[in-house]
């Protein structure tokens, strides 16, 4: 008898495993990515929208999108002045199939030197790895869109709508956009962030606290992400070793070894534990590393607005002194102040909801991860108990 | 080109594995996991299971994992008790049985609760010898022994007969190697180990006794045993390997975990070595073995350089060369030897491969250990920075969970190594010793061949003399022939004896191996089980913390 764990492939459950809050609770605009195709380097996502909003042409539709389209959308939003006071949802990272692709090459090269079983097994593992990377990248692209759709301002964004609806290739638009903005904002020296933010003379206690917290937290969460990745890699290595051990055993003539066959399955369980830990905890940390950066970007924009305001004050003083262009300077100052106030106001709101969002996300993922770990460990327990019993009774 | 379409609904590429009623953990099955007792009971449970023995004698185990009797395993350190790597300078070896206190217990008997070795004391060798000698004597009386391949008039015993001889009266003899102590300083320092014996055998002076021995004493014992018994075709258990690097660290006085690990590794290896020696019925009878166990002071063993790892390996590798040179098939039973040797060689390769894989496992697990510890610290730091108090607390708890996991990984690595890796390493060397024993038989066969050819030459010489009519040299020739005839019959007897011994040894070895492997695998799986139990507990303790985040 071989004990094998049961695998849940419930679509509903899977889709709700986002690192953020359940973002699809507003039925007026529901977005998901039900499908994805991987062809060599390119991934094609199927973005599916269901909406009751009149601004859209149809109530339900799907379009194919590439990763670069998502980046385009993100960049246009970042570069929109009106959104300066919001935390822009971080862009999804590029799909990274490098790991499984390398393995696939190795598999192809080593095919002749492997037994049929070994080859089939490796192929199976490879497919599982591909699937895991797939899931991750789909998840992260989906969450990006859902963050936009659940935000009162972003969901109305024209480019967002185009992204969801436009049934032609977006690459033309992408090129135009690049020419228009030239990646202007992105090419700004990011290291100036830290200096500028920490240099701001903060009157507002809320922002003072936030600044200190975010600067410290971002360093630590980045570190935590790297170390979590290292840990889950080690875990996968251990699982691989079990695979090699059971592989070596399969070469024996006498193969009536339930105990060690179960080692195979144990390896799968270990692998899954590592992947789940990876998916839950590591992805959570990764995501919030990026989100923290987005929050910091908000602080940066506000700090710049404050700097602008201070400069406008100085300019006004100078104008008054000289008696020239005073009205213009006054107008400028007024606008700078307005901008700064607007940023501060919406910034406060955004950062407050960001806090709540982060706590909820951590809670959700920690709970789910813990439940999965318990499930897998219990599974291992029953597998092992079964094997031990069989061995002892022989 | 790899093309794959991910369909997340029904047609997902990942197959859903079938659910076996007993093992499925899905919510729908509604199965409650078996309740696990708390730590103490659990260990007791494990112990009793280990001590169960199945007295059923099956036929020889073909693959390495089936076995007849399950012998209790010798005391090795349990993963969760005691601290092998404690840096206090005292090397503590803890026992699986929670009742013992390990080394520092005054009750020596406690050390042996798990270390039973069951012996058979029937004089199988001598009995066998008698039977063989009988018919051979009659064969010797014929004037002509055909020059062609010798067909033994004595059929070596059938498998069943040989096995029956094995089980006989059983006496107890338990051995433990404990209390490693460093004697002396600097480069002349050495480790001294306590060898304790507990026995009911009458040939020993006492029932319980102990002596102190050093590593070279063990090597010396091997040399003595080997000199005497390997010629007979016995499988001599090889001693643990020398290690200049390992010992230098210890001598120099580096009191770190790697030295402690080295000493523990050696201690355990010496213990296993002795246990295998006394498990061998003929070796146990050897006075040198008895002396080793009993005598207070042993003369210093010299010339143990030859027994360094590579030296031993060279000796063993010559075995296969010798066998390959065998061109003449001796008789039908020779097929048995040929195929058996091939089996042995294949198995050795397999075990080498397995050992390499397990080695890799040990290393990766140690890595995982380190990475988990590092991760635990950063999570703690993240928790301390976190502004939300409930989340902050949960993160510190998570850091603690990861810390516990690091300990679990550490213990598991220990089990990986001492239960699995060392077993495999031992058997790779033991299989080498088995090959040696085949070589012995070959040597005896070659000697017989040479004697037969010399006899033939002498006969031809006699015939020539008869024909040349030189009576004065005839007597010499006849004497020569007589001399060589008796040599040939002696060597024939030797060869039969060796053949019989080797066969028996191999059978005994296979049985031992099957038993050994089964025990160790069970023990290993139990260690994994233990780890998983603890994991469940750790995470279950954390869950409410995670849920408490608000």
TrEMBL record, chain A:
<dbReference type="GO" id="GO:0015031">
    <property type="term" value="P:protein transport"/>
</dbReference>
<dbReference type="InterPro" id="IPR014637">
    <property type="entry name" value="SNX5/SNX6/SNX32"/>
</dbReference>
<dbReference type="GO" id="GO:0005768">
    <property type="term" value="C:endosome"/>
</dbReference>
<comment type="function">
    <text>Involved in several stages of intracellular trafficking.</text>
</comment>
<feature type="domain" description="PX">
    <location>
        <begin position="1"/>
        <end position="170"/>
    </location>
</feature>
<dbReference type="GO" id="GO:0006907">
    <property type="term" value="P:pinocytosis"/>
</dbReference>
<dbReference type="GO" id="GO:0005829">
    <property type="term" value="C:cytosol"/>
</dbReference>
<dbReference type="Pfam" id="PF00787">
    <property type="entry name" value="PX"/>
</dbReference>
<dbReference type="InterPro" id="IPR036871">
    <property type="entry name" value="PX_dom_sf"/>
</dbReference>
<dbReference type="InterPro" id="IPR015404">
    <property type="entry name" value="Vps5_C"/>
</dbReference>
<dbReference type="InterPro" id="IPR027267">
    <property type="entry name" value="AH/BAR_dom_sf"/>
</dbReference>
<dbReference type="GO" id="GO:0034452">
    <property type="term" value="F:dynactin binding"/>
</dbReference>
<dbReference type="GO" id="GO:0042147">
    <property type="term" value="P:retrograde transport, endosome to Golgi"/>
</dbReference>
<keyword id="KW-0813">Transport</keyword>
<keyword id="KW-0653">Protein transport</keyword>
<comment type="similarity">
    <text>Belongs to the sorting nexin family.</text>
</comment>
<dbReference type="InterPro" id="IPR001683">
    <property type="entry name" value="PX_dom"/>
</dbReference>
<dbReference type="GO" id="GO:0035091">
    <property type="term" value="F:phosphatidylinositol binding"/>
</dbReference>
<dbReference type="Pfam" id="PF09325">
    <property type="entry name" value="Vps5"/>
</dbReference>
<protein>
    <recommendedName>
        <fullName>Sorting nexin</fullName>
    </recommendedName>
</protein>
UniProtKB/TrEMBL annotation, chain B:
<dbReference type="Pfam" id="PF09325">
    <property type="entry name" value="Vps5"/>
</dbReference>
<dbReference type="InterPro" id="IPR015404">
    <property type="entry name" value="Vps5_C"/>
</dbReference>
<dbReference type="GO" id="GO:0005794">
    <property type="term" value="C:Golgi apparatus"/>
</dbReference>
<keyword id="KW-0967">Endosome</keyword>
<dbReference type="InterPro" id="IPR001683">
    <property type="entry name" value="PX_dom"/>
</dbReference>
<dbReference type="InterPro" id="IPR036871">
    <property type="entry name" value="PX_dom_sf"/>
</dbReference>
<keyword id="KW-0597">Phosphoprotein</keyword>
<dbReference type="InterPro" id="IPR027267">
    <property type="entry name" value="AH/BAR_dom_sf"/>
</dbReference>
<feature type="compositionally biased region" description="Polar residues">
    <location>
        <begin position="10"/>
        <end position="23"/>
    </location>
</feature>
<dbReference type="GO" id="GO:0006886">
    <property type="term" value="P:intracellular protein transport"/>
</dbReference>
<dbReference type="GO" id="GO:0030027">
    <property type="term" value="C:lamellipodium"/>
</dbReference>
<keyword id="KW-0653">Protein transport</keyword>
<keyword id="KW-0007">Acetylation</keyword>
<comment type="similarity">
    <text>Belongs to the sorting nexin family.</text>
</comment>
<dbReference type="GO" id="GO:0035091">
    <property type="term" value="F:phosphatidylinositol binding"/>
</dbReference>
<dbReference type="Pfam" id="PF00787">
    <property type="entry name" value="PX"/>
</dbReference>
<keyword id="KW-0175">Coiled coil</keyword>
<dbReference type="GO" id="GO:0005829">
    <property type="term" value="C:cytosol"/>
</dbReference>
<keyword id="KW-0813">Transport</keyword>
<keyword id="KW-0333">Golgi apparatus</keyword>
<keyword id="KW-0446">Lipid-binding</keyword>
<keyword id="KW-0966">Cell projection</keyword>
């Amino acid at each position: 008898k071989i004990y094998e764990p049961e695998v849940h492939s419930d679509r509903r459950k899977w889709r709700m495993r986002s690192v953020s809050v359940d973002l699809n609770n507003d039925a007026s605009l529901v977005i998901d990515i039900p499908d994805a195709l991987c062809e060599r380097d390119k991934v094609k996502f199927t973005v599916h929208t269901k909406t009751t909003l009149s601004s859209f042409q149809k109530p339900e539709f799907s379009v194919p999108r590439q990763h670069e389209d998502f980046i385009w959308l993100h960049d246009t939003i970042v570069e929109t002045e009106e959104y300066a006071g919001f935390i822009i949802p971080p862009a999804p990272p590029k799909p990274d199939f490098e790991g499984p692709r390398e393995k696939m090459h190795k598999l192809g090269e080593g095919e002749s030197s492997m037994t049929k079983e070994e080859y089939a097994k490796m192929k199976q593992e490879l497919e599982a790895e591909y699937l895991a990377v797939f899931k991750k990248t789909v998840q992260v692209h989906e969450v990006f869109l859902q963050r936009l759709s659940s935000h009162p301002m972003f969901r109305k964004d024209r480019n967002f709508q185009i992204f969801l609806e436009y049934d032609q290739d977006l690459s033309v638009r992408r090129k135009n956009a690049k020419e228009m903005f030239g990646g202007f904002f992105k090419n700004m020296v990011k290291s100036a962030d830290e200096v500028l933010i920490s240099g701001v003379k903060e009157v507002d206690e809320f922002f003072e606290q936030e600044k200190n917290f975010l600067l410290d937290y971002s360093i630590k969460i980045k570190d935590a992400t790297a170390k979590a990745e290292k840990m889950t890699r080690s875990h996968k290595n251990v699982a691989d070793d079990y695979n090699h051990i059971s592989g070596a055993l399969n070469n024996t003539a006498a193969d009536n070894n339930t105990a060690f066959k179960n080692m195979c399955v144990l390896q799968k369980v270990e692998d899954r534990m590592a992947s789940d830990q990876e998916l839950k905890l590591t992805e959570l940390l990764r995501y919030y590393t990026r989100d923290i950066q987005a929050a910091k970007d908000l602080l940066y924009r506000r700090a710049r607005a404050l700097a602008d305001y201070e400069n406008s004050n100085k300019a006004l003083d100078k104008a008054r002194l000289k008696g020239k262009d005073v009205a213009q300077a006054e107008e400028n100052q007024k606008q700078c102040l307005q901008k700064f106030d607007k940023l501060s106001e919406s910034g406060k709101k955004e950062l407050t909801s960001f806090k709540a969002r982060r706590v909820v996300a951590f809670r959700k993922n920690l709970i789910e991860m813990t439940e999965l770990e318990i499930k897998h460990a219990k599974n291992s327990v029953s597998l092992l108990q079964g094997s031990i019993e069989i061995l002892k009774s022989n | 080109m790899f093309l794959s379409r991910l369909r997340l609904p029904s047609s997902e590429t990942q197959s859903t594995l079938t659910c076996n009623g007993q093992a499925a953990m899905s919510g729908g099955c509604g199965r409650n996991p078996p309740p696990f007792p708390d730590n103490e009971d659990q260990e007791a449970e494990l112990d009793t299971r280990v001590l169960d023995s199945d007295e059923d004698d099956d036929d020889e185990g073909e693959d390495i994992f089936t076995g007849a009797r399950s012998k209790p395993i010798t005391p090795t350190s349990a993963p969760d008790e005691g601290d092998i790597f404690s840096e206090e300078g005292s090397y503590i070896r803890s026992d699986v049985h929670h009742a013992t206190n390990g080394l520092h217990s005054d009750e020596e008997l406690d050390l042996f609760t798990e270390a039973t070795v069951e012996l058979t004391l029937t004089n199988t060798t001598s009995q066998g010898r008698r039977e063989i000698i009988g018919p051979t004597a009659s064969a010797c009386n014929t004037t002509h022994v055909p020059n062609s391949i010798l067909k033994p008039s004595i059929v070596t015993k059938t498998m069943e007969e040989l096995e029956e001889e094995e089980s006989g009266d059983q006496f107890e003899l338990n051995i433990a190697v404990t209390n490693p102590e460093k004697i002396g300083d600097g480069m002349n320092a050495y480790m001294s180990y306590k060898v304790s014996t507990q026995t009911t055998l009458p040939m020993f002076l006492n029932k319980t006794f102990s002596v102190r021995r050093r590593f070279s004493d063990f090597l010396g014992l091997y040399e003595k045993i080997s000199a005497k018994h390997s010629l007979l075709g016995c499988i001599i258990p090889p001693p643990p390997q020398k290690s200049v690097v390992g010992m230098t660290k210890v001598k120099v006085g580096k009191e770190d975990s790697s030295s402690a690990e080295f000493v523990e590794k050696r201690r355990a290896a010496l213990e296993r070595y002795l246990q295998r020696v006394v498990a061998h019925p003929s070796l146990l009878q050897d006075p040198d073995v008895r002396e080793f166990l009993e005598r207070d002071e042993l003369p210093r063993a010299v010339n143990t350089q030859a027994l360094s790892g590579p030296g031993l390996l060279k000796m063993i590798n010559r075995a296969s060369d010798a066998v390959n040179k065998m061109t003449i098939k001796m008789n039908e039973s020779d097929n048995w030897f040929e195929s058996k040797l091939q089996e042995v060689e294949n198995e050795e390769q397999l075990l080498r491969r397995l050992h390499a894989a397990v080695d890799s496992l040990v290393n990766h697990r140690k890595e995982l250990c380190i990475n988990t510890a590092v991760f635990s610290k950063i999570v703690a730091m993240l928790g301390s920075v976190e502004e939300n108090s409930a989340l902050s607390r949960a993160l510190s708890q998570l850091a603690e969970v990861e810390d516990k996991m690091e300990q679990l990984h550490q213990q598991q690595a220990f089990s990986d190594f001492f239960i699995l890796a060392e077993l495999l390493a031992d058997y790779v060397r033991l299989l080498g010793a088995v090959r040696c024993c085949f070589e012995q038989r070959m040597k005896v066969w070659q000697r017989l061949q040479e004697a037969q050819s010399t006899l033939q030459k002498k006969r031809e010489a006699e015939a020539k003399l008869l024909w040349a009519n030189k009576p004065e040299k005839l007597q010499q020739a006849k004497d020569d022939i007589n001399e060589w005839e008796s040599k040939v019959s002696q060597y024939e007897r030797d060869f039969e004896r060796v053949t019989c011994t080797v066969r028996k040894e191999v059978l005994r070895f296979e049985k031992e191996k099957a038993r050994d492997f089964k025990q160790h695998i069970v023990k290993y799986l139990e260690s994994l089980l233990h780890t998983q139990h603890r994991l469940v507990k750790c995470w279950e303790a954390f869950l409410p913390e995670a849920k408490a985040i608000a």
